[in-house]
Amino acid sequence: MTPPERFFCADAARARDDAFAGTAPYGSVWVLIEYRSSWPANGFDGVALDPETKALVFSAARASRARVLLIRRHGRRRPEGSGRWAVLRHDGSGVLRQQWGVWHRDQDLVRIVAALDSPGEPGRSPVVLVCAHGMHDACCAVRGRPVGAALSARWPDRVWECTHVGGDRFAANVVVVPDGVYYGNLDARSAVAVVEEHLADRIRADHLRGYTTLHPPQQAAVAAVIGRYGPAGRHDYTATATVLGKDGWHVRVSSRGPHVREYDVEVWGRRTPPHRLTCRGPANSSAPVYEVTSIRDR
Predict the structure, then answer these.
(1) Is residue 282 pLDDT above 80, yes or no?
(2) Each residue of 46-105: pLDDT tens digit?
(3) pTM above 0.85, yes or no
(4) Please, are residues 163 and 69 in contact by the beta-carbon 8 Å criterion?
(5) How many helices (H) and strands (E) does the chain have?
(6) Nearest-CA neighbor of 238 among 220, 258, 222, 216?
(7) Rounded to the nearest 10 degrees, what angle do helices 144-154 and 188-199 cross at?
(8) Which tens digits make up the pLDDT trace of 231-248?
(9) CATH top-level class for 9-215?
């Protein structure tokens, strides 16, 4: 008897042509912890760290609405030497801040608690995260690790592999922090091009899942404006007004600079028919989709 063909959620999502604009999880603070041992399926929650230290970090991160991710360099599983940790934030004014430290013992990670209460330093280079969390979802490893290899070869000091960032079916996923920009459906070649453009402050819509500082309908609206009018800097557009009506969301997108332009974007939300959305989850479920139905230049 022929065994059933193995299911890969990213292959299925591409076959369905799943929409990914508006799928970036909301948030503006990230905690990164270098962890070279195997990553459990539930990431930081499952690592074997000192329980008191772990509880303090988890509580502080939750209070700051920060996402905790384990990180490692591609292809480097050295058990020796100190690890690094970081707190990165995109503050309300749009300033990007980072604070980095090292840890030798589990208890050293308590310094993250104080870092979450401090503003951090501006002006540091952004960090490029590639989800390669195979224990969470097979596609994250199958598609993420080749992307991690390609990006690490180009930017070895900026790129880290990381645990689950959300949206397994859009693997390979890349997140630039603290910019707060999610990209999906990448391969090794497209990832290098996307990150190169991002670092030059030219964001394109092709692989853009969204900005984490915006809510899903706003993410979809900004992505649609970029798609129509061309690449833009991270802070060239902002959602200045969002109203939910009977026919969906009405999002006002404004440009920044000496010549301000405004666009009225209509966004319709719906849910997909039930599908198997992840490799590990056998149950079918539906997902929200945000479709832009019109863009009007004011």
Answers:
(1) no
(2) 999 999 999 999 999 999 999 999 999 998 655 567 899 999 999 877 789 999 999 999
(3) yes
(4) yes
(5) 7, 14
(6) 222
(7) 50
(8) 999 999 999 999 999 889
(9) alpha beta
DSSP character string of 40-83: PTTGGGGS---HHHHHHHHHHHHHTTPEEEEEE-TT----SS-E
Place of tokens 């009018």: 229
Q: Which residue has the tokens 């209460």?
A: 117
Tell me the two tokens of residue 238: 């902002």
Domain residue spans of the chain: 9-215
Give residue 288's identity as a one-letter amino acid code: P
Residue that is written with structure tokens 């990230």 in the block = 30
- Describe the strand order of the beta sheet including 159-162 as a list of residue ranges: 121-122, 96-103, 83-90, 29-34, 67-72, 159-162, 127-131, 174-177, 181-183, 208-211
Q: Out of 114-123, 138-147, 254-263, pick the least confident.
A: 254-263
d(CA 148, CA 163): 12
Whole-number Å distance between alpha carbons of 165 and 68: 10
